[in-house]
Each structure stands twice: as C-alpha cells, then as structure tokens.
Prior knowledge:
This protein has two domains: about 20-110 and about 265-320, Bordetella uptake gene, domain 1 (D-Maltodextrin-Binding Protein, domain 2); about 115-260, D-Maltodextrin-Binding Protein, domain 2, CATH 3.40.190. Helix content is about 45%, strand content about 15%. It contains 14 helices and 13 strands. The protein has a six-stranded mixed β-sheet with strand order 2-1-3-12-4-13, with helices on both faces. Strands 8-5-9 form a three-stranded antiparallel β-sheet. Strands 6-7 form a two-stranded parallel sheet. The N and C termini lie far apart (about 65 Å).
Amino acid sequence: MKKLLMTLVLALGLSGPALADYTLIVPQEPGKGTSVWGEIIAKNLEKFIGEPVVVRHIPGARDIPGFNKFHNSLRFDDKTIMVAHGGNGVSYLLDKVDYNYFDYELIGSMNNDIVLGKHEGAQEKEGTWTIAGGSGFEPDAAAVAMLLCGPVGNNTVDDYLACWRERVIWVNGVSGGEKRLGFKNGEFDVARESPAAWKRFYEGIEGNELWFTHGILDLENNVQIADPNFPNTQFEDVYESLWGERPSGDLYNAYKLTRNWRDAIQKSLWMNKGNPNAAKVKAAVTEMINDPVASAEIYAKTGVYPWIQDGPALLAALKGLITEKALKDAVRWNQEAYGFPSIYKPELLD
C-alpha cells in the first residue's frame, strides 16, 4: 500500500513543496491609497502572470518597516514583489532606512502626480496661510512656500524659512479626513491629494479651486512636463504667471529633488536584482498595461498616467538630481520648516 501511494504521488506530481503564490508586499494597512492600488494590481496581474497573486500588508511608521523587511529578507524569495509609493522615495533621501532602490529591478512604475488646491480667490501674496501637514507633503509645501513668497532675497533656504515663519502656520498630526473637513470648513487654506482623491473629495466642494500640480517626468528627454489629466496647472507655469519669472534657487533645486523621487516612483513595483522571475513578471505587467479592461480599472483609481519600465534609465535620472547642496537643503528645509527629523546621508552621493 505504501509503495502504491508513493507511485500515485509521483505520477500526479505531488512530491515536494507546493508551488507558492506570488506575493505583493504593501507597506501600509488595508484601505489606504497605495494598499487599494496594490489590491487592484494583484487582481489584474494574476490574469497575465498565470498564477495567484496575493497581497501582504506590513504597515509601520512612515510606511518604512515593510520596505525594510523586503530589503532585509523578503526580496530573496523569487516570488515576492514590493509595492512602493512616493513617501518611500522621499524617505530614501531623508530618513534612516535599510532599503536601496539600486539593489532591485524595476518591474513597473506609474509616472504619477499630486494635486494642490486652495480656496477660490485666495491671493498668494496676502495673509497667513494655515496648512495641515504630514508625511508625503514635503515637495508640495516647498512649492507652496515659493508661491506664497515669490522671489525673495537670493532664493536661499534662509530666505524662504524667514518668509515661511511669517506667512505659514504648519499643523502636523492631522488625519486625511480631518484635513478634508478642515479645508471644507475654512480651517485650512490648502488641499493636497492624489489625482483620484482630488476628483473624489474636492472637485465638488463649493469655493474650492485647483491651484497647481507638479507635472510628470518625461524620462526620454529628462524634463518635467504638464500633467495630461490637469493641463495648464504645472507649478513652474503657475509660479511664472504669478511672479513674472521662473522659479529658481536653492529651495527650488531641493524641491525638484524630492518631487521627482516621490512622483516618478509614486506607485511602483520592484523585485530583487537577479530574480529569475523578474522578466516574466515585467512581461505580465506590460500585458496588463496594454489590456483595456485591466488598465481601465487601474486608471479609475489613479487617473491616466504613463508607466515606466526602464529601471536603469529612471534611477539614473533620479540619481542625477542628487547633489550635496540640494540634499543638504532638502534635509534642512524638512527639519526647520516642518519639524521632521530628517538626516543628511552623504552615501547617496556615491
């Protein structure tokens, strides 16, 4: 009987461990923006990969622990994919983290954006503005500072910090729902959301107007271009319309650094470098992007944004923004304008 059972096991291919599902690691609890995106990606990706794809949530402070765990252990599993968002990109620059994008292969990244709004008719050159801050807001609030202050002195971080302290009340620790309610009730002067959340929560608010977007990265020409979903709203153009010249100076360079490290990899998929399944998964993502049904479901959450799959070119473009001056200025601005415990990491210059 034992010999018969063994013959059946071998004949049916049941010997050895069962094949594992693909796993998407999401560094947030369920229900948040990147988690919802990850669920949609998993559901659609498994149609093209031909195997189940499950989501595993590993939340933690500033969404860092999940990415650290991927780097330190999970990435060595050949069926593990990391879902990263823009906050992870900013943290890579400014926080103590274990993960390193240059150790991974990019499977695909949505070239995304953030939308900023203000109360209709509010004049940038007047008054004190109250802003509900928080993680992920770093590039947005730097752009707000430049719009409120305009060309000031030599456009140094010192110049903008002096104006910021005079013109802005920055409130940390406000939840997303509280920010929206506070803006609607006039307690906060700035609205900041992903494109999908903007359409869902802010477009119907009376007296609200879209202020600016950051645009998206044109990787082929390595320049920032207008957001196709929100034309004529790019920060640089709005600034020039208001102040009569293009933005420049130290804070602007720090802003470009954190903006692109956040938005170009705001919704991205990574596998360990050398992973034997990476090419298969990347091909499945390409099929998913080109499938009208799958892409429509994804874009319903994010807006229609182009994908980037050329990891070496993208990381080279992002690394090219890292200079000692821009990095130090970004750290200082985060520390002194927002009260965030940022650190300078000279190893990023290597």
